Structure formats: C-alpha cells, structure tokens
Amino acid sequence: MTVLLWGVPSEPPMAMVSRRLAALGADVLTVRPGGIGQQLDVTIGVGSGPGQAGRSVLRGTIRAGGQSVELARITGAYLRPVEPELVPELKGQAEAAPGLAHARRTQELLTGFTEAAPRVNGCRVANRLSAMASNGSKPYQAQVIVRHGFSSPDTLISTDPQEVLDFAARYRQVVYKSCSGVRSIVTAFDPVADRERLQRLRWCPVQFQERVDGPDVRVHVVGGDVFAVIVDSDAVDYRYARMQAGEDARLRAYQLDDDVAARCVALAASLDLPFAGIGLKLATDQRVVCFEVNPSPGFSWYENATGLPISLAVARWLTSRAPTATRSTRPWS
Amino acid sequence: MLLVVCGLEDESALWFARRAAQSGVHCRIVTTEALSYARRFSHRLASGEVRTVVQLADGPPLADSEISGVLNRAVQAPAAAWQLAAPAERDYATMEWHAGTLSWLHALPCPVRNRPEPDCLAGPVRHPFVMVAAAHAVGLPCPEVTFDTTGPLGSADALLLAAAQAAGSQARPVHLACLDGAVPGGDLPEPVAAGIAAFAARVNADTALLGLDFFAGVGGWWFAGASPLPDLRAGGDALCRRLLDLLAPDQVPVPS
C-alpha cells in the first residue's frame, strides 16, 4: 500500500505529513508539481468492453523519481499541487514548450486518477481538486454553511457604491475582502476615507461584511477528528496581526463544544472534504459564525504553535483504507 | 419570466430562447458578456436568505422573485469588460465575477438547469476517467483506452477516438440531450435508456441537462463522453416542451 504525495516536498504541510507517514512506516510516492527535478511518467488505462464488467476500469502506473507504483497499490493521496503555469521552472514558457506540455498532461492525468480513484479503487484522497473548488466562491460556501446550523456574517457583494455606504451605516463596523478563492487581507472599511475608492466597484463586485466581535477559532477536520485552535489577537485579520495590530496572534489549543464539533465534521463532509480548515468566530452575541471552509489548509502554523497532532491525523487517515469505496456523500467519489 | 444565461455565441441556447419566445413565453436572454457590463450587481446574504438584483445596460432589473426558471449555460465568468486589462487585474476580476455569479445562480429558488457547481458554472462536469468509470459501472459499453504523458490528445478527445474505433468503421456518432436522467423524444435501445438514467444518477446529474455522446456500431452503442452543455437542438420539440414545463410552468407550452 502506497500513499501518493502530490505537491512541493519542502512546503511545511507536505513535509510534516511526509514525516508522519515515514514514522508510520508507510510507502510514499512523491510527485512534484510539473515533475520538476524528477523523471515523471503516468500511464492510466480506463474502460472495458462488453462482457468485461468485472475488470478494473482504472489501471496503470505512476513512475516518479526512480519509483514505479501500480495505481491499484495507491490507497491514499494527499494533494497540494501547483498549476503548471505557476511552477517557477515553467513560468513564462511558451505554450508549446515540451516541459510545460508534459507538466499539463501529467496534471490532467493525476487529476483524473485522484477524481476517480476514491470510488473505483477505494483510495482515500485529501482532497479531490473538484471538491476544493467550493473555496472559489465564499458566498456559495456561505449558503452551505448556514444549512449546517452556523451563522454567516451579513454580507453584501455589490457594484453599487451607494448601496455599500447604506450597508455600512447599519453596522458598527464593516470589513471587505475577496469573495473568490484569491487570498486577500480582511480590511476594515472606512466610509469616509474609502469613499472615493468605492467608485472602482463599478466594474467588479466586492464583498462587504459586518465585522463580528469575538475570538477566532480555527478548526481542522480530519475525517471524523476535530482539532481546534483559539486565536488571541486584536487584528481584523489575525493572519496578518503583526501588520495590522503590531504583534503576532497568540494561538492555543481549544476544546470545542461537542455540538459545534459535530457540525464542523458534517459541514466538511457535505463539501466532500475529508481534510478541511474551518474559520469560526465565537461572537460576543453568542452566535457561532463560520466564515469559510479552506479545502487545502496550511495547518503547519497551527500545529507548530499548539502541538496539536494534525499532521499525524492526516497521515493516519491516509493509511486507513476506507471500509467501502462509496462512503462519500457524493456518489461519484 | 424565463431566463436564458449563456455566452453570446451559444447558438443552442439562443435557438431554445427563440423557440420559447415563439411559444409566447416571456423569455429574457442574459449573455455573460452583457452581465459583465451590468450597471448594477447586488447580492445580499443575511439570516440564511439570499437576494440578488441585476440591472443590465437595458431592460428592467432582474430580481429573484420574477424569475420562473433558468436555462443556465454560462461557461465563462462574466469578465468581458476586463479582457484588455493587465493580466493580474483581469484574473482577479474574473475570479470575483465567477464567485458572485456562481452564488447568484446557485441560490435562485426557481428551477435552474443547470444549477452551477463550484468547478463549472454550467453545471456537472466530470473528468473523463470518472465518466468512464460511471458508464462502466452502469453497464454502458466503454472502449478500452490508455492515456499517458506522451499522448497527443487530451483525455476527452482520446475517449472519443477510442469509442469511434471500438464501434467500427461503419459507426455513426450519436449526440443526445438528456434532461433529468431521460432523453425526451429519444428512440433509444432499452439498455441504453436505462443505462443513461443510471449514469446520470451515478455522476450526481440526475437533475441536470447533460450532453451524451455515443458511437453506434459494432456491439451496440459505445460511450464516448458527456458534458453539461448538450446541443439542445438534438432534443427538438420534445426537449423544448419538457424544459418549458419545468422552467416556465405557468406560461404557454410549445404547440406540438
């Protein structure tokens, strides 16, 4: 049994999971984005004709860095790939450049394998790229979030400056941030200083939200396990606390209420994310507000600060073969 | 009001819109290009409710409550207005518009075919490996095809070619417009019809429009691919009627 690690080996989350897998004695196959620095070839056979219903529909091998592994042996996969166009060694290459074409082809085949394997081979994948896409629309995620009993901050996405000013007038403070998967810094809106800039909304909607007071809690869900971290910071966006508040946020492990923990597990499962980072706020008005579900959590900061064994849980999940190949909430996965 | 959301050059969607209008249905076409130049886009989420108002350059505002159903065939985010912008700005705006459009169409309380999914505004798109595995599982004949890193074709094209070869030199291509697991007006071999319904359910597209490709030839019908963007003209009057019943139920049906 082999676990596929698809990502940059030196990146902290990938490195931490890799070390845990080694400690567990797991066989690991590492595929770097674009196959940079390694000989990488993928062969995948699919389908079968009439009368061959019992034959496996997903066959082949992945050869990377001198290792060759049959697809049927891959029982777990941890994905943090980088798009070929963004790999430094490939950036700026011409469309027809062989290196870029090979990287794209490899990306497509590995994507197909990791999309199909959970159902076909019972492989555990954290997470399929198609499932990660929900992070591309925060308001879409918000619709899923409220169905799981969490509050979502009052939100306006608008191209209308006056509507934004009216919205801001209803709250003590309003913040703005990207509504897509683009990483942005959550910033307080100033109706006076930002008034002129509001005219720029005309061509691109921007997301404004009520600012919710109370401590942030980051919840990592790994299968059915939950690891919560509470954040102490005065910053609007605690990830950038040094820049916004002059000092780093302080993190410590936190015991989440059982009901909230169960809802976090259900929320991640509904998005088909065996591994997820959920952003909560324990609002002073008693609401449990959920901002987003990160499908590719950079958990290393939280683990290093608190000692919570998140990477160990991921490694254990990857090496525990699913009892059936169809446990997912979505029938094709 | 029936809303048709599509790209400016989506002849299939425009054909359906014409048929709807000819039938007396109040139909409004919103191209993604026009959406990009909207005078106002307002998307509000509060207390578990979602309200959206879109004011295009012409016509009255589009409010959720006035829309009886949506034929959604948007593939691209409405970012035409950004096409000449610096790449970083354009990419950012495209992703923001994608996020807003996805949330708007997903939240509409009326029937939507297809309701968008996070990885495709036009609805259920699946990797060819997933489709082949699903087709195989439900008993639709699938060609054997091998993909590797040196192959000249993408996976979807390689599957199409393999199906054509498996079906033999006399094979004919068949394109079907499948709505909610059935092919309206389709005169299909029974095993194929049953297989299509099971396939749609298996890829979580049993309430969706799908385009299904086969090659009919040696050994029956060979599965060659699927997409969320069928050519609606393949379904003719029968598909039009079913869609109008679904998306504009209180309006005039297409005469048979």
CATH hierarchy, class of the largest domain in chain B:
Alpha Beta
Helix content of chain A: 25-40%
CA-CA gap between termini of chain B: 22 Å
Task: Compute the number of helices of chain A.
Answer: 9
Main sheet record of chain A: 5 strands, antiparallel
N/C terminus separation of chain A: 20 Å
Shape of chain B: globular
State mean pLDDT of chain A (0 to 100 scale): 90
Radius of gyration of chain A from CA coordinates: 22 Å
Sum up the overall morphology of chain A in one term. Answer: globular
- Write down the oligomeric state: heterodimer
Helix share bin of chain B:
25-40%
Radius of gyration from the alpha-carbon trace of chain B, in angstroms = 19 Å
Question: What percent strand of chain B?
Answer: 15-25%
CATH architecture of the domain at 2-127 in chain A: 3-Layer(aba) Sandwich
What's the number of structural domains of chain B? 2
Q: What is the mean predicted local confidence, pLDDT of chain B?
A: 93
Which spans of chain A of ≥5 residues are poorly predicted at pLDDT below 50?
323-333
| Strand composition percent of chain A | 25-35%
Summarize the structure.
The complex is a heterodimer of chains A (333) and B (256). Chain A has 333 residues and is an alpha+beta fold. Chain A contains nine helices and 16 strands.
Topology, please?
The complex is a heterodimer of chains A (333) and B (256).
Chain A (H helix, E strand, L loop, with lengths): L1 E6 L4 H12 L3 E5 L8 E7 L11 E7 L2 E4 L3 E7 L17 H23 L3 E3 L2 H4 L5 H9 L8 E4 L2 H9 L4 E4 L9 E2 L17 E5 L5 E7 L2 E8 L8 H5 L4 E5 L3 H13 L4 E8 L5 E7 L5 H7 L3 H10 L14
Parallel strand pairs in A: 1-2, 1-6, 6-7
Antiparallel strand pairs in A: 3-4, 4-5, 8-11, 9-10, 9-11, 12-13, 12-15, 13-14, 15-16
Helix pairs in contact in A: 1-9
Chain B lengths: L1 E5 L4 H12 L4 E5 H5 L3 E7 L2 E7 L6 E2 L5 E4 L14 H21 L4 E2 L14 H10 L7 E4 L6 H13 L4 E8 L10 H13 L6 E9 L2 E8 L8 H12 L9
Parallel strand pairs in B: 1-2, 1-6, 6-7
Antiparallel strand pairs in B: 3-4, 4-5, 9-10, 10-11
Helix pairs in contact in B: 4-6
